[in-house]
Write a structure and sequence with these properties.
Elements: H1 3-19, H2 29-36, H3 40-52, E1 56-59, E2 63-66, H4 78-84, E3 106-107, H5 120-132, H6 146-158, E4 172-175, H7 178-189, E5 195-200, H8 204-212, E6 216-223, E7 226-227, H9 229-239, E8 243-246, H10 260-273, E9 276-280, E10 304-309, E11 321-324, H11 328-340, H12 346-356, H13 359-386, E12 391-392, E13 401-405, H14 412-421, E14 424-425, E15 427-428, E16 441-445, H15 454-467
Parallel strand pairs: 3-14, 5-6, 5-8, 8-9, 9-10
Antiparallel strand pairs: 1-2, 4-11, 6-7, 10-11, 12-13, 13-16, 15-16
Helix pairs in contact: 1-3, 2-3, 3-15, 5-12, 7-8, 7-11, 9-10, 13-15
Length: 470
Amino acid sequence: MNDDSSSRLVAELRRWLDSAAAGAQLPSSRTLVAEHGVSPVTVQKALRTLAAEGRVETRPGVGTFARTRPLARPADYGWQTEALSLGTPTTPLSPSALQSVPNDVFALHSGYPDRELTPESLVRAAFRRAARANAITERPPTAGLPDLQAWFANEATTSSDAAAGSIAPSDVVVLPGSQSGLTTAFRALVGAGRSLVVESPTYWGAILAARQVGVRTVPVPSGAAGPSPEAVDRALAESGARAFYAQPNFASPTGANWSPQLRRDLLEVMRSRGAFLIEDDAAHDFGIAAPARPLIGGDTAGHVVYLRSLSKSVAPSVRVAAIVARGPARQRILADAEVESIYVSNVLQTVALDVVTQPAWRSHLRRVARELGARRDLLVAALAEHAPSLTLDHVPTGGLNLWARLPDETRLDRYVAACRDRGVTVGNGDEWFPAEPTGPFVRLNYAGPNPGGFGEAARVLGSVLTDGAW
């Protein structure tokens, strides 16, 4: 069976259907074989593809016809997320993003970048230097190495709209990874039994962290443009929550990057409600078309509590992150961190600081941006060609993944399992919803290994839908 012949025939039949009357009958399979010089198997495969797209319907014993009415767009049930505000579905103990797979599998499920996108030579050199320094035997201050605190403070200022000096090194608390930071922030600023407003969908790790500390999540719908300020305001008012967790830059999983107006509007909501906005900037170093701009830069009253990690951009083994908070909130966070971890490894802090202060660090980030853009575009093109039934609301301007919607009738668990059986792993979109999913989605990481295999992986994603293996 020739995939090129099938793709060519599908394209020809799409053009025919575009101009055909509703209910028009397609030429018989025998006619299509003769006219297009393809095999009967190729014809059947093309017709199955068109049926999966909703372009045709087959009547046994009669023939194949253009659908009598246009296929409706996927229903948008996002409004129900806000109306129901129920955040207690079961989440797998081991989320798909953390699962290991054999080397011969196309891994589109991971949330980490490929080794080729990390500054490996800088990291190795930094570890060698740290091993020869006092860092290997000394205990660091509880809040972190002063120079690393200063670096995080400067980054939050210079890469945002913050006024010079509005973020001080003493506002920074260094933590052992962003997941630890989320747990600390939710426990210190929200508290067990109280409510936290979150985007839906949102980062699965934040959902699990909230549940771990007994925090009730109150979801508001969010998509390619981010959440509605009015929805966030209503959720805060109705739930009594005094905190909102969000990802303004290259959100996982949607890839949303908030507009300047949305940033201003949501900051105003926080001010009017006297609430915290817990800003997760995990994808800070993965901008493609434009750099990340921390929301904390527009806040001078301590409403924004800012979290940034270096574990993905430096190396997975360098579990170093930081929270920027001001006023009593910072004291609560530091007190929780002291109980949770006492301090972060001096060696890891020294290595992280060494890497990000090297002149080659900025050059590395520029190279990563170019490479991510190329990989993203390669996967987008592969999906358009081989899996057109997967819908992309938008192409993200940064981050590591695409957020794709499957046809409404897809049984997501079965689809994910069928793809895995054929050698492709994808992120099960249900894991990113704090309440009931609003449709079948998958998260596809374009930053992982083997981008040359994106075409083959996309063929699997499309063929599983076409074959009805789900």
